[in-house]
Amino acid sequence: MTSSARPLLNRRLAEFGTTIFAEMSALALSTGSINLGQGFPDTDGPEQVREAAVRALRDGRGNQYPPGPGVPELRTAIAGHQRRRYGIELDPDREVLVTAGATEAIAASLLALVEPGDEVVAFEPYYDSYAASIALAGGTRVPVTLRPHAEGGAGFRLDLDELRAAITPRTRLLLINTPHNPTGTVLTRAELTAIAELAVERDLLVVTDEVYEHLTFDDAEHVPLATLPGMRERTVSIGSAGKTFSFTGWKVGWVTSTPELVTAVRSAKQFLTYVSSGPFQYAVAEALALPDSYFAGFRADMTAKRDLLAAGLTDAGFEVFKPAGTYFITTDIRPLDPSGDGFAFCRALPERCGVVAIPNAVFYDDRAAGAPFVRFAFCKRQDVLAEAAARLKSM
Predict the structure, then answer these.
(1) Distance between CA atoms of 308 and 300, rounded to whole angstroms?
(2) What's the number of CA atoms in the CB half-sphere (13 Å) around residue 264?
(3) CB 285 within 8 A of CB 362
(4) Phi/psi at 392 (5° precision)
(5) Which of 369, 324, 323, 330 shows the shortest CA–CA distance to 346?
(6) In angstroms, rounded to a whole number, what is the distance separating the alpha carbons of residues 91 and 93?
(7) Residue 145: how many CB atoms within 10 A of its CB?
(8) β-pairing verdict for 373-377 and 328-332
(9) According to the CATH classification, is domain 11-45+293-393 in 3.30.750.24?
(10) Are 121 and 173 in contact (CB under 8 A)?
(11) Is 234 helix (H, G, I), strand (E, B) or coil?
(12) DSSP state letters, 93-132
């Protein structure tokens, strides 16, 4: 043991303990509960994509270090996907970088672009790695809170005036997530246009997390920020194979941007993992070339699961904010628990009825603002969701 009084953990990480996902998943295991906490599917994605990974392994492709930016086949496939879906033209050799999932893409982007003293504006509630990555870079996070819509179940919305007020001379970067985890909000074209105009006016960089791009429901539309005027040259866009193809364990993500921004992100990324997921990169290249019918079927399946769990949660007494995107549903527990203590509610839920969820307060700087909200994942088999709904109703 060291005799120094200085803590062993880097002070920038002092506020971050074990993630809530690890805590709640352990609780699910110890109690035999249905885990609707951590966002991973309970079935694998397309068989042909899995077989593509097996084929790459057998053929010796990617079993040694792949190229630092990613294998050419995948970079070309990512560029083709962006062109086909959104009309974005990319040079696969200079404007695409493959990462160890979207989490590394976020970390590398912030480590590359943020210096001590810089402010990073992010929507609250936020994916928990945002706060840790900003802290590691020495930046200061500035939350802008998404609040429940006045019409109740209509979801959470952004207040553009609050966003404008959060920008200061020290603001370096906007960290945007749409479709938004955990609220399920999908920013509208009008909202994104206002964000783009603000970024151009204040000369801000933007990192945009678009990992749920293929999971929008009803009439919601995913609009990549990089397609809006003035944004191509200042936006780092992040995507993920795990969320779209249900192979979260493969950890294949990517960054797309200008050559200058991709070079900056790669400079940080090379000292994190250097490279990863060799054989899986070839499989994801094939997955991105799947026909539109795959993406439509994927969305239809998740829509049905969303509706099933939303109905079950409503029937159990929760106030439900029906998501326009992602595979999470946020609920308000106060109709069931007037104390509004989401932490206590989630910790007691496995013993009460055998279901695990996540308290949204962990995604807020303002813990009181998030206290009554609890998130459930619906990326599970329909029979599992139906059983979870029955258990919740029995509370």
Answers:
(1) 12
(2) 19
(3) no
(4) -65, -40
(5) 330
(6) 5
(7) 17
(8) antiparallel
(9) no
(10) yes
(11) coil
(12) TTSEEEESHHHHHHHHHHHHH--TT-EEEEEES--HHHHH
Phi and psi at residue 232, in whole multiples of 5°? -55, -40
Q: Please list the residues that pair with 253 across neighbouring strands.
A: 99, 240
Token pair for 34: 């249905």
Looking at the chain, the number of H-run helices and the number of E-run strands are 14, 15
Q: Between β-strands 96-99 and 253-256, what pairing exists: parallel, antiparallel or unpaired? A: antiparallel
pTM: 0.95
Rounded to an integer, what distance in angstroms lies between the CA atom of residue 321 and that of residue 267? 40
Long-range pairs of 348-353 with CB within 8 A, sequence gap ≥ 24 = 349/33, 350/27, 350/28, 350/31, 350/33, 351/31, 352/395, 353/391, 353/392, 353/394, 353/395
Token readout for 29 is 């295991």
Asked if residues 56 and 48 have their Cβ atoms less than 8 Å apart, the reply is: no
**What pLDDT sits at residue 183?**
96
On whether the CB atoms of residues 378 and 308 are closer than 8 A, the answer is yes
Chain-centroid distance of CA 314 in Å reads 25
Q: What is the pLDDT of residues 356-377, one digit of tens each?
A: 999 999 999 999 999 999 999 9
CATH class of the 47-288 domain in this structure: alpha beta
- Residue 218 exposed, middle or buried by CB count within 10 Å (0-12, 13-18, 19+): exposed
What is the residue whose two structure tokens read 């088999």?
381
Q: Which two tokens stand for residue 23?
A: 């805590």
Q: Where are the domains of the chain?
A: 11-45+293-393, 47-288
pLDDT tens digits for range 306-349: 999 999 999 999 999 999 999 999 999 999 999 999 999 999 99
At residue 285, what is the residue type? Answer: A
